[in-house]
Structure formats: structure tokens, C-alpha cells
Amino acid sequence: MPDAVKDRVASPSSGRRRFLAGAVGLAAAPLVWLRGAAQAGAEPRLVEATLAPAPAKVRLVPEQYAATAVWAYNAAVPGPTLRVRQGDRLRVRLENGLDEGTTVHWHGIRLPNAMDGVPDLTQPLVAPGQSFQYEFVVPDAGTYWYHPHQRSYEQIGRGLSGALIVEEREPIRVDRDVLWVLGDWRLERDASIRGGFGNFMDLSHNGRVGNTVTINGHVPESFPVRAGERIRLRLVNAASARIFGLRFQGHEPRIVALDGQPVEPHAPEGGVFVLAPAQRADLVIDMVGDPGSRHEVHDGFYRNLEYRLIEIAYAAEPPLRARPLDAPIRLPTNPLAEPDLARAERHDLVLTGGMMGNMRGLPRGMAWAVNGTANSCGSGKVIDPLFILRRGRSCVLRLVNETQWHHPMHLHGHAFRVISRDARPTRYREWLDTVLLAPRETAEIAFVADNPGDWLLHCHVLEHQASGMTVCLRVA
């Protein structure tokens, strides 16, 4: 691991060390303004893009270290940010420049099953040198992302991911709309990516937590702001396993959306915002610091491993305004069907396995199970549905984590409402597509099964997904 990157490592003393020598500017992720053509009548606007995953070299760490060999969409890490409007029809051509098969999963988008990007379930693998065209209407505004669903623990771990921003028809008023794609890397001292993807230690424990954290593909020094401005900060956790627990020193961010879906604006509990792998959040932050001041953003999720993620650096110029912007921050709702809890069908999903758990009887290489079943996506084996949901019927799933580890559970093709945790009703009843379960925690989620097809439900600690914590639900 490069010495200059040690302040990015979750180590007990890292928060006390001097931040990286040689600032790396916090560049925005590459932005693709998609080609669009207005359609006649009520047809949605068609927008187009191309994603070309292939080997590339990028500079993740300061310039005194070598560039890092990665796998990247369009030679950039993260891949190009696709920005469209709610209701657009998105057409993306995948051109595979890797030496292995791949797909693209559009995480959080409620789309037709054939466009979901899951090999052996919704489409064949896209072989090296081959292409595939994805096309779907984006029904919900919000912050989403895309990534491979084949050997995800390595393909994402080597750099393949990017953001998809769907703009509201009536956005809230802010001075800047900013995206942070959070990445996590396991690097050697020469800044190369360490091998050993998919080893059983990672599979059966906490996943592949790295030693270097990036924002938009760089180890950053500071985030420049101006006193008095209001920022909408979109966060995407593109790490394969790292959970972030962010504290914004001297600031009071308000959460306005989770996993793309609007929520009642509120402050994070205890001032710490937790973001699990695959989750997204939109925060509104009023920059209330003094001109010229600096404020740290800490990640302290893991005990005794707190470190400084970045500094908020105020320009010396006078404040943009004397007091915070007086404008509403509640986002318009998306067209989601409200589940009927009284008439819902109910199912229990019990998560077991992992180190310090019961792995007896699992197939070789598997470490986890859901209701006693262990599956792995992309292995060439068809995953049979665990159960069938009637189309249009409300459903409540009780997720029971009987393991000693955290599991961010992601449901494809739907958004769900979190209605309780450990039998206590949730305060904000947020809509999510990925819910984080703490060890020994139980959560109830509810949704209307209105999107037909076979859909995965799996842990988004990608090593857990690959080693058993994956099931299929059929909506028919």
C-alpha cells in the first residue's frame, strides 16, 4: 500500500495524521450529456450512450505513485455519469472489451426483466468482443448506479461502476448538485490492485474491505465550497463491502432521498450517516462555516478504525448569502404503489452462515444461505425461484439476520418500504432497494409485486452474494 495513502486507511491513528501530502483535486466523475431526440406525441424522449468496459490505467492516488491498472467503463473510474430526465427512454450499447463475459445491472431502476443485466437469469453473458443493447424507460427520479452482475466481487473491485442520475421534473432549489461515488480499493505499495479476489476469508467474513478510499476515482484532499451556498450532495457507495459512517464536522446535513426515493427530510441519527454497499443518499447541506475555515468529514463506521475522508474547505470570499437559503427541500414523490399491509402475503427469509455461524451442509465454496438455500449468480446454473408472488399482490418479507455480520440486502426490479426493525415501526418508513441488516437484526419490508419476471434478492457485500446469499423471487 502506498505510504501516502495510509491516511485513507481505516486505522486507529489515521484521523490524527496529516492528510495526504500533495493535494489531489476532487474532480467530478466524467459526465455524459446523452444524445436526445424529442419524440412525437406522448412517446418519451430517447437518449443514447455507449459503455465500453476494458482494461485501462488511471491515477487513483497522488502523482508520486504509478497509475493503477484497472477495468473501466470508457477508460474512466468511475464510469461516465449518465444524466437523464424522469420519463426518458434510455438506450445504452454495451461493448465488451474485457477478456471475460460481463453484463450491466441498472441498480435501483424499476425496468423490464429482460433489461436487468443478470446472467443466466435475464440475459446471456456478453462475451469478449460482443455487444448488447439495453433499452428502458426510467420511471423514477433519483440517484442510481450501474455495475456488472458477473463476478461482481472482482469486476466492480477492479473499477467497473458508474452513476445514473435521473433528474426530477421539478427539482429542488440548490446552488450546486454534486456527486460523490465512494470507492474502496485493496492496493499494494506500488498502487497496483492486490489480487486474491474471491478468497474464502473474504467470502466468509466481512467481504473485501480495502485499504484505500476514493471519491470519484481519486484520493481527495479537500472539497472546495463557498460560505452561504446550499449543496445537494448525491452519495453512491460503489464499494464491494465497505460500510461508511460519515460525520460532517460543523455541518448538519439533511437526508432528502434514500436509494433514489424521496424521504421526509431529516438529520441522520446521532449526526452519523450510514451508507452500506450499493446504497445511495441525497443530502442537502447548507454551508454555514466561516470563509477560510476547514471542516473534516470522518468515516467512523468500524470500531477503532476512524479516518478522515476529506476536508470541506471554505473559500476566503464573502458568503454567498447572509443566512441559509429559504426554499423547501422536500423532493416530489415517485409513482410507487403503496402496499396493502392488511391483505399482503407474507414470507420469512432467514439469513444464515458465515464465520462464527453454521456453514455445515453448504456446497463447496459456499459460506451463506437464505432459508437453507445457497446460490451464486453467474455460475452457469439457473436459480430456481424460492417462491412465486402473484402479480399486483402486496407482499411483506421478514428478513431475519441470524449471522454475526452485516448484510445489505438488495431486491431487483422493485422498491420496497421498510416498515419495521426488530418489531419496532420505522419512523420515516423509507422506500429503499437495499436495506442494511445489522448482526442478529430483523427487518420487515413491504412492496407491491407489480413487475413480472424472475428477480434476484441478494446481499450486496459482493463476496457474500457470490458465496450463497442469493435467491430468486418470481412475480407472475
What labels would you give this structure?
3 domains; 476 residues; 39% strand; Immunoglobulin-like; 6-stranded mixed beta sheet; 3% helix; 3 helices
Helix-and-strand structural type: mainly beta
Which consecutive residue ranges, at least 5 long each, have pLDDT under 50?
Answer: 1-40
Oligomer state equals: single chain
CATH superfamily of the largest domain: Cupredoxins -  blue copper proteins
Q: Write the CATH architecture name of the largest domain.
A: Sandwich
Mean pLDDT: 91
Percent in strands: 35-45%
Number of helices: 3
According to CATH, the fold-level topology of the largest domain is Immunoglobulin-like
State the share of residues found in helices, binned by percent.
under 10%
Distance N to C terminus: 50 Å
Could you name the CATH class of the largest domain?
Answer: Mainly Beta
**Any idea what the shape is?**
globular
| Number of domain units | 3
Radius of gyration: 21 Å
Major sheet summary line: 7 strands, mixed
